[in-house]
Amino acid sequence: MNIESLTIEAADPAAARDFHAAAFGPDLPLRFRTSDTPTEGFRGFHISLTMAQPADVDAIAATAIAAGAEVVKPVTKSFWGYGGVLRAPDGTIWKVVSASKKDKGPASRAIEGIVLLIGAEDVLASKAHYVERGFRVAKSFGRKYVEFEPAGGRVTLGLLGRKALAKDAGVPMAGSGSHRIVLNGGGSAVTDPDGFAWEPASVTA
Fold this sequence. Notes:
With 205 residues, the protein is an alpha/beta fold. It has a single domain, classed as 2,3-Dihydroxybiphenyl 1,2-Dioxygenase, domain 1 (Roll). It has four helices and 15 strands. The chain has helices spanning 13-24, 54-67, 123-132, 162-169; strands at 5-10, 30-34, 39-41, 45-51, 70-78, 81-87, 93-98, 113-120, 137-141, 145-148, 156-161, 175-177, 181-184, 190-191, 197-199. The strands form three sheets. An eight-stranded mixed β-sheet has the order 5-6-7-4-8-11-10-9. Strands 2-1-13-15-14 form a five-stranded mixed β-sheet, with helices on one face. The chain has a two-stranded antiparallel sheet with strand order 3-12. A hairpin with a 2-residue loop joins strand 5 and strand 6. Helix 1 (13-24) packs antiparallel against helix 2. The longest helix has 14 residues, at 54-67. It starts with a strand and ends in a 6-residue tail after the last strand.
């Protein structure tokens, strides 16, 4: 099992598509479709773009901000590396990060990895759901954090407690309504324990 792409639901999918292409480049595994389903506050996830070095983070963050992203957490150095958090105009939260604190060469916009982190109400229950669906665990730290193997998919799936994920994103944890994201992969439609919907990758957005 893997995530082949992500569908972002927005009131104006064309504007969302244009923003993401301008901010991060046209090659991310993203789809877009119309949705006016109510959503309020934290949507229970964020997407991380992992880069090789701080200069790459700065380059991506700069184009995203120029395209209209809101700065939630300014890009800065921390004990774990270098990065910041941005919110797209459609409300999707993006984290742009590098484990490295020092540049090793000229800035590049090359994205090394894409990680979808879901804020789980019960990490172990959500982990069991995904293991049953065929995901293989790459890392697991009890009830705190789980990361699954991408298994050839372009997006890595991770689970973190909802409160911890909201803190990591720099937003209040309260939220309700639609997640405004759909995970594309597998052969059947299903909804996980935290309300995130899956659709077969063949479904056209």
